[in-house]
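One record is set out below.
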Amino acid sequence: MKCKGCGLQLQTENPDFPGYIDKSVFETRLSQNKEILCKDCFRTKHYSEFKGNIGNIHTVDYISKVVKGIDNIIFLIDLSDFFGTFDKRILNLVNGKRILYVANKVDLFPPQISSREIKDWLSRELKTEKKNIYLISSKKNRGIEKIEKEINGGKYKKIAVVGVTSVGKSCFINSLLRNGSTTVSRYPGTTMKPIVLQTKEGIEIVDTPGIYTKNRLSDLLDDKSKGRFLPEKKLIRTTVKCYRDMTVFFSAYIKMNFRGSKNPVPVFHFFSPENVGVHITNEEKSENKYIDWIPKILFPPYKNNNLNDIVFTEKKFVLNEGEELYISGLGFINMAFGQLEFSLKLPEDIFIKKTRAMIHKDKFK
């Protein structure tokens, strides 16, 4: 029998091995016809503890074997971190299959941004028709009925849900099935093996392990910090008027410098999860006070981590009104007014993408 949470084979012999459950607990819950979870999943679900994961099952090669023979795919993307979770490696492994693009966490965006605007932007970035895109909030059950209607329309017998870690696949499937079949946590990599579930109409839903990435800022954090970092209620908007010789920190990892004087003064909005420290200062203070500001002002990290092991690089950008710059695993800059020339100091592996804006320049005054 497999654990209903992580998908691993249950075993009662070795508590140090994955899939362990105490024999007496197993027999009791089996006799009472209650949910059976391994010890790790039980403690993750009820006590928010997380022991770890098995890295070799969170790879593209592993997932390609899982979805082999499955013609229908739900590609789940975190809308609040689009370029960090729209992993093009997944497109390669599902090439030739029917793909439904499901953008999760739409509830985190300000209400001023319409679903139509979001879909238009996604259609352009995904290079697909809007009919293939679904906007949802698993947490609030928003948009779930539309996917339910699509899946139950007679076209599908089996469909796999794929995505990178921390996009909310298990939460999405629980919302879709209207139950708590899979373990939901704020820790990445909770699902260890494919879990096959069924809708009430008998359609098989395959919950696959999340694929690890290395190009998101969140990938630099430990598992507990990643759980704290994920946005809960909304994306926070920070508006910055770009006066001369300013330095802006987005967490302790990203430093923006601009020296030029523009008239009129450029303005941008920065959208990020709640637990990101944004601090505006000048270059001199940024050099002298940087270490002292971690993690009191600059966070993540949320504790006094040594950042010396991270290799930083500096990149220069020009951002015009009506453009956005996405920092994978952190947030995005929306250029609301004018033009800004600046440099970013950031970890060298972080993926950055400049694109046409999703958010119109006049949305926030």
In short: The CA atoms of residues 2 and 9 lie 4 Å apart. Residues 1-51 form one domain.
